[in-house]
Specification:
The structure is a homodimer. Chain A is an all-alpha fold. Chain A has helices at residues 7-23, 30-37, 41-47, 51-58, 61-74, 80-97, 99-107, 121-132, 139-157, 166-181. The longest helix of chain A has 19 residues, at 139-157. The first copy, chain A, is elongated and about 65 Å long. Chain A binds chain B through residues 23-27, 106-111, 113-114, 122, 125, 139-140, 142-144, 146-147, 150-151, 154-155, 158-159, 162-164, 168-169, 172-173, 175-176, 179-180, 183, and chain B through 23-27, 106-111, 113-114, 122, 125, 139-140, 142-144, 146-147, 150-151, 154-155, 158-159, 162-164, 168-169, 172-173, 175-176, 179-180, 183. Chain A binds a DNA duplex through helix 3.
Chain lengths: 192, 192
DNA sequence: GTCTATAAGGTGATAGAC
DNA sequence: GTCTATCACCTTATAGAC
C-alpha cells in the first residue's frame, strides 16, 4: 500500500510549523526539524528542495485565496458595500487558517522580506487595500482600509493569551474593522 | 580632545539600524555591518559586547518610556479619560522615535521572541492594554485596548509607502485608536 | 524513502599584537 | 581603538550507498 506515501511529508509539515511558530523561521534549522522528527536532515531534503519550500507549501492556498478575492472584487461595483465584503472575505480566509498561521506570518515578516516568490502578508494586505480604494486610491482612504485589514490579522496573532475563543476574536475584530471602514469618504469608489 | 570618542560607536549604531530595518535583524551579520562601515568585526566587538547589545542600546529609552506611562497611569483614576491619555502618550512615544523604529520592531518580532532581557513591542503593548483595563481586565475590553494601541504602531510601520507625512499618519491613527476605545464598556474602570 | 558522509561556507565571538 | 588571525560551531544543501 502506498496509503502512507505522504505520511512523512505531512509529519515534516506539522513539526516545521510547530517549530517555526515556537521560535521563529530564522532561528529554526533543518537539523532541529529532523531531530524532533527522528529522521535525518537528508530525509527532509528528499521531500522539500529547500527550507523556504516548506513554508511555501504550508501556505500555498493563502496567496491563492487573496488572489481570488482580488479577482472577485474586480467584477464588483466600487463602493462601500464591496469594501466591506472584501474585509469579511479576508477575515474569513484568515479565520479558517487559524491562529497559528496568523501568528507565524506576523512574527516572521523579516524572514520573507525581499525574496523572489515568497508570499508576505504585508503584500496581500496591500493588494486588498488597493482593491478597496478603487479607483481613486486616496492615501488617507488607503490608510483606513489597511488599518481595517490589519485589525483582522492581529486579532488572531496577538490575542492568543486572552480568554476569548477564536470565534469571539474574529467577530470582535470584524466589528472593529467595519467601524474603521466608515472613515473612508462615502463618495469614494463612486462615479460622480 | 575626546569629542570624537563616541564617533565610531554612533556610526555603528546608525549603520546597524539601517541594515536591520533593511533586511531584518537575523539576516544581518556583524561582518556585514563592519564591511559597510569600513572596519573589522573585531572593532564592533570593542564597542558592543554582543549583537543583541546593539539593539538594546538603540532602543534603551523605549522600555523606559513605556514604564513611565505605566507608572503615571497607576496614579490616575481608572476610566475612559485615563485610557485615552495612555493611548495618546503611547502614540507620541512611538511618533517621536519615528518610522524606522516601529518598522524595525514590528518586522523583527521573531528575533526577540523568547529572550531574557530583550524588550519587545508586544510586551509593551500588553502592559499598556492591561493598565487601560484596570481593574477588571475584561477580556473583550483588553482586546479593544490592544487593537487601539496596535493601530498606532502600524501607522508608522506599514504605511511608509503612502503619500502621507509622519504627522498625518500619526493623527489619523490616533483618531482611529480613540474610536476603537469607545467600544470599551463605559462603566469599565469605575467603582460601581 | 531514508541513510551516512561531506561539501562549502557562514556565524558570533575572542586573543593578542600594534 | 582598531587590527589580523583564528576558534568552535552552525548552516543549507548534495552525492551516493542501501
Amino acid at each position: 500500500m502506498d496509503r502512507r506515501r505522504t505520511d512523512t511529508r505531512s509529519r515534516i509539515r506539522s513539526v516545521a510549523m510547530e517549530l517555526f511558530t515556537e521560535q521563529g523561521y530564522d532561528k529554526t534549522s533543518m537539523r532541529e526539524i529532523a531531530e524532533r522528527l527522528g529522521v535525518t536532515k537528508a530525509a527532509l531534503y528528499y521531500h522539500f528542495k529547500t527550507k523556504q519550500d516548506i513554508v511555501t507549501d504550508l501556505f500555498a492556498s493563502l496567496p491563492e485565496g487573496i488572489d481570488e478575492i482580488v479577482r472577485w472584487a474586480r467584477n464588483q461595483p466600487a463602493g462601500a458595500k464591496t469594501r466591506e465584503e472584501i474585509l469579511v472575505r479576508y477575515g474569513t480566509l484568515l479565520h479558517e487558517y487559524g491562529r497559528d498561521m496568523a501568528r507565524f506570518f506576523y512574527t516572521n515578516q523579516a524572514a520573507f522580506g525581499r525574496h523572489e516568490s515568497a508570499f508576505t502578508m504585508r503584500e496581500g494586505m496591500r493588494l486588498l487595500a488597493h482593491a478597496m480604494t478603487t479607483p481613486d486610491h486616496n492615501p488617507l482612504d488607503t490608510f483606513y482600509a489597511r488599518q481595517a485589514l490589519l485589525t483582522l490579522g492581529w486579532s488572531s496573532a496577538m490575542m492568543g493569551d486572552l480568554d476569548l475563543t477564536d470565534d469571539e476574536c474574529f467577530e470582535a475584530s470584524l466589528k472593529l474593522g467595519r467601524e474603521l471602514l466608515q472613515r473612508i469618504s462615502p463618495t469614494a469608489g463612486h462615479i460622480t
